[in-house]
C-alpha cells in the first residue's frame, strides 16, 4: 500500500515499516551485501530523534586520539557526512567499497528497524547504539523538517498526526521501531545500548561516559581529571554545533539538504507548542497498548 501527500514522495510498506521507494535500492543492497565486523559501531535512530547529535558525539569520542577539538573534521564537515547512512547513502550510491577503508572502529548509521538489519550485523558482535526520543517531540520535529516546508503539497499537523498514529511515517510505526531495539537491548545488553534523547539533555556527562564505555572507548582517569568529557559534551551541544559555520551555511554531500535544517530548537517538550493534550493522550494510550509488559513505557517515562 502507498500513501500520498506525506513525504518527499509516496511511502510504501516494506518488511512492516514505511519508506519512500527511492530508498529501497540502498536498503536492499545493504541487507543483502553488508559484511559486519565485530568492531563496528552502528548508530540507529528513528528520524528526528537526535541522529545528528549522536553521530557527532560518537565520532568525537571514537576519534579523540586522532583529532583534538581544535582540528576535528566536525569543524568543517557535517556529522551526517562523517557518519553517512550506510544504506541510504553508501549502498544507495553503490559505494560500499569505501566501507573497507574506514578506520577501526567503523561508525555506521541507519534508521532501519532491528528486524530489518542485515543478518551479518545481528550475528556479529558489533555494538548497536539506539537513541530514541519522546515521539511527540520527534513528530513535531519531523513535521517541521519534512512536512510543513512543502508548499506544493502542504500537510496539516492534524492530518500528519493522524497518519503518525496509524503508524504511517518514515520508518514507522514508531512503537515497533522502539520495541524492536528495546527487546534486543534486554536480550543482548553487551551489543545493544538503548538511550533516550531526554536523558542526554538532562545529564550529558553521564551519557557521554556511558556511550564511551559501551563503544569500547572508555575515558581514562586522567582524561576525566582533565575535563575531557565536559569538553566533548560541550563541543557537541546544540548551541555549539548549531553555531559552527559548516552547520549554518553548509549542505549535506549526499542528500543536498542544508545543514541548518538539522538544528531547530533542540529542546525537550516543544510538542506542547504544537500538539494538544488530547493528541498526547491518544499517542500515550496507543504506545502503552503496543508496549504491553515490555517495560519500555516505564523506561520512557522515567
Ligand atoms: P528539534 O526539531 O526538536 O529542534 P535528527 O538529527 O535525528 O534529524 O534530529 C533533529 C533534532 O535533533 C532536531 O530537533 C534538532 O534541533 C535536534 N538536535 C540537533 N543537534 C542537536 C544537539 N547537538 N543537541 C540536541 N539536539 C540536537
From TrEMBL:
Ranges for domain Sulfotransferase come to 38-295
Q: What is its EC number?
A: 2.8.2.-
Q: Which Pfam families match?
A: Sulfotransfer_1
Gene3D superfamilies cross-referenced by the UniProt entry = P-loop containing nucleotide triphosphate hydrolases (3.40.50.300)
MF terms from GO for this chain are: sulfotransferase activity
Q: What class of enzyme is it?
A: transferase
Question: Which keywords annotate this record?
Answer: Transferase
Keyword Transferase listed? The answer is yes
Q: Does the keyword Mitochondrion apply?
A: no
Give the family, as the similarity comment puts it: Belongs to the sulfotransferase 1 family.
The protein, known as = Sulfotransferase
Tell me which species this is from: Dipteronia dyeriana
